[in-house]
Design brief:
The chain is an all-alpha fold. The chain has 16 helices and no strands. The protein is elongated, with a radius of gyration of 25 Å. 39% of the residues are buried.
Length: 312
């Protein structure tokens, strides 16, 4: 049975999700781009600081609305007058990452780190930019550096776990996910990552124990039920695994890999007709799902051979 991956890959979008969690959710008043932020000579120092930070406030709100070009213009305006404003540099780096411009993001972060060399958030953002450029080894070294100085900084720990996961280093990734959970026991990404690694390593009992705890917190989580079905399958408890994948599909009926797993479970129980229906539904939802196509074709061939044999 192939890897119990969720319909939407668990780790593809994590850098932007982590950025949103870290930098988002802060409410500010609206600021118009045409308003000048250049403080007048007669302003007090407090007013000048407030005026200087107006582009940052505006940019955060623009990012929340998905208006990245406006955010970048506002931050660039500020950086023309204060090119070493570290908060503006870091925020513009985030915007440039969202605009798929990691090289520009790295330049901003390098400038910010020249001013504040140990700013952990900026170091972490730079690892994201390095990975976006495919500079995995350098990103890994940067993560190790962050973790050595900030061992409880969970975004870096989680990023390192996902990097190891992507490199198919399951044992190391398992240890890394576990390190995150030792600090944040309810971290959902780390929980699902750890369970996936346990399943890959054939440790179905441990995975099932983790999933039972997670399911008690949220019985309507389709991802947890999907993985729990996989754990039960690893343990050979096929009828229970089938019941669990059906519960998953009641929650998320548009998940092609859940239909694929259902087909595999039914096929393993010699329920070929039902398995074929599940494979066809998986392919209807995702026509390029190779595993479902191969399983369907294999099942169809086996059925045809059985029919031929019976006729002879």
């Amino acid at each position: 049975m192939d890897r119990y991956a969720w319909d939407v890959a668990l780790h593809t979008a994590w850098p932007l999700a982590a950025l949103a969690a870290l930098l988002g959710g802060i409410g500010y008043g609206a600021y118009r781009l045409q308003h000048p932020w250049r403080p007048a000579e007669t302003q007090s120092s407090t007013a000048a600081v407030q005026s200087a930070f107006a582009p940052i406030k505006f940019s955060r709100q623009a990012i929340a609305r998905g208006e990245f070009d406006q955010a970048e213009r506002a931050l660039s305006y500020l950086l023309q007058t204060d090119p070493f404003q570290t908060e503006a540099l870091a925020l513009r780096a985030e915007v440039r990452l969202r605009q798929n411009n990691p090289s520009a993001a790295i330049k901003d972060l390098n400038t910010a780190l020249d001013v504040q060399p140990n700013a952990v958030t900026n170091l972490w953002l730079r690892t994201i930019a390095l990975m976006a450029q495919g500079m995995t080894d350098q990103a890994k070294k940067e993560l190790d550096r962050i973790i050595s100085h900030h061992p409880a900084f969970t975004p870096a720990l989680l990023q390192r776990a996902q990097l190891l996961d992507a490199q198919a280093q399951s044992s190391e990734a398992l240890a890394a996910y576990s390190a995150v959970l030792a600090i944040e026991p309810t971290n959902p990404t780390a929980t699902l990552g750890r369970v996936t690694m346990l399943l890959q390593l054939g440790r179905g009992t441990d995975a099932l124990s983790d999933l039972d705890r997670a399911l008690a917190s949220d019985p309507n989580d389709g991802q947890i039920r999907f993985l729990r079905s996989g754990a039960l399958a690893v343990l050979g408890r096929l009828p229970e695994a089938t019941a669990e994948i059906e519960a998953c599909l009641r929650l998320v009926p548009q998940a092609p890999r859940a239909w694929l797993l259902k087909g595999q479970l039914l096929s393993a129980q010699q329920k070929d007709a039902e398995a074929l229906v599940a494979y066809e539904e998986a392919l209807r939802l995702q026509p390029d799902l190779t595993a479902a196509k191969d399983a369907r074709d294999k099942l169809t061939g086996r059925t045809a051979a059985q029919v031929t044999g019976a006729m002879q």
